[in-house]
Amino acid sequence: MKNSIYTLFLVAIMVLPSCEEECSNPDDLENDKYYENEIFNEPFMDIYGNWELYEVSGGIHGIGDGLKFDLLQIRKYGIYTFIKNSAVLERGKIVIDEQTEESLKISFSPDEDSEVFMFDSEKIAILQGSDSLFLQSPCCDRYNYHLVRKD
Predict the structure, then answer these.
(1) I need a labelling partner for 100 at 20 to 30 A (CA). Which of 21, 85, 117, 123 fits?
(2) SS (H, E, C) the chain
(3) How far apart (Å, rounded) are the C-alpha atoms in residues 99 and 124?
(4) Which of 10-24, 68-82, 109-123, 136-150 has the lowest mean pLDDT?
(5) How many CB atoms lie within 10 A of CB 13?
(6) Topology of 29-149 in CATH?
(7) Are 146 and 69 in contact (CB under 8 A)?
(8) Which of 27, 106, 33 is nearest to 73 (CA)?
(9) Which of 44, 51, 41, 49 lies closest to 133, judged by CA?
(10) How many CA atoms lie within 13 A of 52 on its CB side?
(11) pLDDT digits (tens, 9 = 90+) for 106-124
(12) In this structure, are residues 138 and 144 in contact, taking their beta carbons and an 8 Å threshold?
């Protein structure tokens, strides 16, 4: 009995620190880490928030792919984080490739100390109302991501 309690205690000590790092909310980046001012035009201000992935479409055969992440968090100013099962997959800055009053083309640029998760990082961001975000690839045979607001 004493050995079982001792073993359980050791396992708890080993697991808790990794969960704390892995499961923490990635709010530790300052808002002005990448940009000092707002980067989005007024029509795209609703892009900030937590976005839950519900579908992936496109690809070579047009049948999409599995859900490789659960949540895309977009914070001021242009900070993004891809999350799966409470673990941070990638985080960094959003780069504006092209922005007009009607369209927004962005790229996800991972932080230098971040893993690279989103290899197909160039997307056209389409807001559908205030609760849907569509990240469309600008060209053929690439994946499109369908997200719904989770705030």
Answers:
(1) 117
(2) CHHHHHHHHHHHHHHHHHHHHHHCCCCCCCCCCCCCCCCCCHHHHHHCEEEEEEEEEECCCCECCCCCCCEEEEECCCEEEEEECCEEEEEEEEEEEEECCCCEEEEEEECCCCCCCCCCCEEEEEEECCCEEEEECCCCCCEEEEEEECC
(3) 10
(4) 10-24
(5) 9
(6) Lipocalin (2.40.128)
(7) no
(8) 27
(9) 51
(10) 8
(11) 999 999 999 898 889 999 9
(12) no
- Token pair listed for 40: 């989005």
3-state secondary structure of 135: strand
Name the residue with tokens 């937590």. 50
DSSP 2: H
> Using one digit for the tens of pLDDT, what is the confidence trace for 3-31?
544 443 443 434 334 433 443 445 556 78
